[in-house]
C-alpha cells in the first residue's frame, strides 16, 4: 500500500499586534538616550579623550571611587547596625524609631549639604557658640575641620542614603528563622557572635543590594559634590559640556559613569546569585526580640537615633528656621512659578511614565514574541543611569531633530515655529520618564503578576477585546499599585536635580533648581521655602513606603 506524505501547511507571516508594536516602541524610547550617549562618545566632533586621560580623568575617577566606597561603607555600617538593633532587641522608643529611620529618604542629599554648611560654617551657630563660650575672637584661636570637603560629602550622602540599606536589611533580618538564633545561643554564641555568624551571612544579599543602590545614587549626585567642591565624574560632565563646550568629551565621561553603574549592577546580581539561602523547616518561627532594660536600652536608642538626627532633624531644623525667618519669601512670585512648573512637569511625567509602564508590561504579556520579552528587563537601566548622562543622551539628538523640524516647517509654510522640543519642557519630561521608568514598570509588572490569567480569559470569552480587558479586569485590581507608582515617580521628579539643570528651558525654574541656584549664591534664606516644599513632597513618598513595609 502506498504511503502518501502529508506536508504541514506553510506558516503565514503574522504581523505584530498593536500592543506588541507599542511595547517595542516604548522600550526603544527608553533605551534611546543610553545608546545616544554611546554613539556621541564613539564619534565625537572634537576628540579630547587623550587630553582627559592625561589631565582630569584620573582625578575624577579617584574622587568618584573614594566617594562611592566611603559612602557605601558608611551606609552599610549604619543601615545594617540599625536594622539589626530594631529587629533583634526591644528598647524604649523602638517602634517609633523603626519608622523614623526611614525619614532621611525624604531629604535630597543636596539639601542636607546646604544645611550642614549653614550649621557648621564660621558664622553658623556651632562656631559662634564656641567663640562665645571660650572667648575666642577669630579663626586663628582654634582649629575646626574643613566643612566643604570630601569627608563632609561622605557624611551628608551617607546620612541621606543609609535608609536604602536599612530598609532591605531590616526585611531580611525579619524574615530569618528564630530556630537559627536558638541553635547559636545554645552553642554558646553571644550577641556579637550571633550577628557575625548567623544574621550577617544570611542578610548579605540584601546588604549588597542596598549598598549597590547607595553607590549608584552617589555617582548620580551633583548638588552635594558641587557644593562641597569635590570633583567627580558627574561634575566633570557639567564642566566639560557647559564650560568647555565639548559635548563629545562629556559623552565620553558619561560612558565611564555608565561602565561603573553596569559594573555595580553586575556585582550586585552576582553576589545575590552566589548567596542563596533557603528555609528548610516547614514551620517558620520568627525571631523573638530580646529586651534591653535600663541603661543598655537607652544607649541603644541614642546610638540608633543619631542617623535620624543627622539625616532628618538637622537639615529640617536648619531649613525650617530659615523659612520662618524669611516668611515674606513665601509670597515671592518666582517661588509660585517654580512650584507650578514643578507640579506641571512632574505630574505630566508621572502620568506618562506610569501609563507607558502599564502599556509595556501588558503588551509583553499579550505578545508571544521574544523581542518584547527581552527588552522588558533592559528598560530598567534608565533608573541606574545618572541624570547627567541622560541629559546628554536626550538634549543633543533632540536639538538636532528640533532644528531639522523647524527648518522643514519653515521651508514648507514659511513660518518659523522655533524650537518646539528643546525650547519647551518636552525634553525635561522625557528625561524624567526615562530616568524613573523602572519604578512604573516594576510596579505594573508586580501588580499584573498577582492577577489570575483566568480572569482575563473569562473576559475575552465574553467578547471583551484586549483593551477592554485591561480596563475592566486588570485596572480595578492594580489600581492601588498604580497610584503608588504615580506618587513615587512624581516625588522623584520633584527631587531630580542634574537632569533638570541640563534640560530645563531658558528662564524655567523648578523647586530643585531654585534651591540649587539660591544655595549656590550662599542665600540659604531664599533657598529655604522651596527646599521645605521639596521635603514635604518627599515625606509623602516615605509615608507610602513605610505603609507598604509594615
Write up this protein.
The protein is mainly alpha-helical and 550 residues long. It has two domains: 36-277 and 289-312, MetI-like fold (Orthogonal Bundle); 326-550, MetI-like fold (Orthogonal Bundle). Helices cover 75% and strands 1% of the residues. The protein has 24 helices and two strands. It has helices spanning 18-42, 49-54, 57-88, 94-100, 109-120, 125-134, 150-175, 178-186, 191-220, 223-227, 233-243, 247-274, 294-325, 333-366, 370-378, 381-384, 387-413, 426-435, 437-449, 453-461, 466-495, 498-503, 511-520, 524-548, and strands at residues 89-90, 290-291. The protein has a two-stranded parallel sheet. α12 (247-274) crosses α17 and α13 packs across α24 (524-548). It is globular. The model is unreliable at 1-6 and 11-15 (pLDDT under 50).
Helix-strand layout with pairing:
Layout (H helix, E strand, L loop, with lengths): L17 H25 L6 H6 L2 H32 E2 L3 H7 L8 H12 L4 H10 L15 H26 L2 H9 L4 H30 L2 H5 L5 H11 L3 H28 L15 E2 L2 H32 L7 H34 L3 H9 L2 H4 L2 H27 L12 H10 L1 H13 L3 H9 L4 H30 L2 H6 L7 H10 L3 H25 L2
Parallel strand pairs: 1-2
Helix pairs in contact: 1-12, 1-14, 1-15, 1-17, 3-7, 3-9, 3-11, 5-7, 5-13, 7-9, 7-13, 8-9, 9-12, 11-12, 12-17, 13-24, 14-18, 14-19, 14-21, 17-18, 19-21, 20-21, 21-24, 23-24
Record keyword descriptors for this entry.
550 residues; 1% strand; disordered N terminus; MetI-like fold; mainly alpha; two-stranded parallel sheet
Amino acid at each position: 500500500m502506498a504511503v502518501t506524505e502529508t506536508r504541514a501547511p506553510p506558516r503565514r507571516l503574522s504581523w505584530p499586534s498593536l500592543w506588541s508594536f507599542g511595547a517595542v516602541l516604548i522600550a526603544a524610547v527608553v533605551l534611546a538616550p543610553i545608546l545616544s550617549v554611546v554613539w556621541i562618545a564613539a564619534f565625537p566632533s572634537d576628540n579630547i579623550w587623550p587630553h582627559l586621560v592625561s589631565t582630569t580623568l584620573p582625578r575624577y575617577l579617584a574622587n568618584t571611587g573614594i566617594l562611592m566606597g566611603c559612602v557605601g561603607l558608611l551606609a552599610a555600617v549604619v543601615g545594617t547596625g540599625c536594622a539589626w538593633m530594631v529587629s533583634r532587641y526591644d528598647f524604649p522608643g523602638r517602634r517609633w524609631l523603626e519608622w523614623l529611620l526611614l525619614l532621611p529618604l525624604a531629604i535630597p542629599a543636596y539639601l542636607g549639604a546646604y544645611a550642614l554648611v549653614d550649621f557648621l560654617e564660621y558664622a553658623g551657630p556651632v562656631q559662634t557658640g564656641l567663640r562665645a563660650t571660650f572667648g575666642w575672637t577669630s579663626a586663628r584661636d582654634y582649629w575646626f575641620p574643613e566643612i566643604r570637603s570630601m569627608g563632609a560629602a561622605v557624611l551628608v550622602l551617607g546620612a541621606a542614603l543609609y535608609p536604602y540599606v536599612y530598609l532591605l536589611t531590616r526585611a531580611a533580618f525579619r524574615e530569618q528563622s528564630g530556630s537559627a538564633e536558638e541553635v547559636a545561643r545554645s552553642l554558646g554564641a553571644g550577641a556579637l557572635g550571633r550577628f557575625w555568624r548567623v544574621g550577617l551571612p544570611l542578610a548579605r544579599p540584601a546588604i549588597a543590594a542596598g549598598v549597590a543602590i547607595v553607590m549608584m545614587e552617589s555617582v548620580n549626585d551633583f548638588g552635594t559634590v558641587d557644593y562641597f567642591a569635590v570633583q567627580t565624574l558627574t561634575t566633570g560632565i557639567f564642566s566639560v559640556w557647559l564650560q568647555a563646550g565639548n559635548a563629545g568629551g562629556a559623552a565620553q565621561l558619561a560612558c565611564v559613569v555608565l561602565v561603573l553603574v553596569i559594573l555595580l549592577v553586575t556585582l550586585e546580581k552576582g553576589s545575590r546569585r552566589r548567596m542563596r539561602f533557603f528555609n528548610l523547616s516547614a514551620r517558620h518561627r520568627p525571631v523573638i526580640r530580646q529586651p534591653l532594660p535600663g541603661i543598655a536600652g537607652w544607649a541603644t536608642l541614642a546610638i540608633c537615633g543619631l542617623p535620624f538626627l543627622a539625616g532628618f532633624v538637622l537639615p529640617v531644623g536648619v531649613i525650617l528656621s530659615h523659612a520662618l525667618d524669611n516668611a515674606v519669601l513665601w509670597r515671592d512670585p518666582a517661588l509660585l512659578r517654580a512650584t507650578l512648573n514643578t507640579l506641571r512637569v512632574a505630574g505630566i511625567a508621572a502620568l506618562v511614565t506610569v501609563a507607558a509602564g502599564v502599556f509595556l508590561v501588558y503588551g509583553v504579556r499579550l505578545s508571544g514574541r521574544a523581542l518584547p520579552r527581552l527588552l522588558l528587563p533592559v528598560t530598567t537601566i534608565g533608573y541606574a543611569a545618572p541624570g547627567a548622562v541622560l541629559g546628554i543622551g536626550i538634549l543633543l539628538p533632540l536639538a538636532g531633530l528640533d532644528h531639522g523640524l523647524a527648518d522643514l516647517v519653515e521651508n514648507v509654510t514659511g513660518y518659523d515655529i522655533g524650537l518646539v522640543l528643546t525650547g519647551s519642557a518636552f525634553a525635561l519630561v522625557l528625561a524624567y520618564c526615562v530616568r524613573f521608568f523602572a519604578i512604573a514598570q516594576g510596579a505594573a509588572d508586580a501588580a499584573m503578576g498577582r492577577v489570575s490569567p483566568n480572569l482575563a480569559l473569562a473576559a475575552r470569552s465574553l467578547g471583551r477585546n484586549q483593551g477592554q480587558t485591561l480596563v475592566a479586569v486588570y485596572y480595578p485590581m492594580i489600581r492601588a499599585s498604580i497610584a503608588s507608582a504615580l506618587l513615587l515617580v512624581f516625588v522623584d521628579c520633584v527631587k531630580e536635580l542634574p537632569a533638570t539643570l541640563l534640560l530645563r528651558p531658558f528662564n524655567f525654574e523648578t523647586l530643585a533648581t531654585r534651591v540649587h541656584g539660591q544655595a549656590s549664591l550662599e542665600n540659604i534664606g531664599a533657598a529655604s521655602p522651596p527646599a521645605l516644599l521639596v521635603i514635604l513632597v518627599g515625606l509623602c513618598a516615605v509615608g507610602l513606603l513605610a505603609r507598604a513595609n509594615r
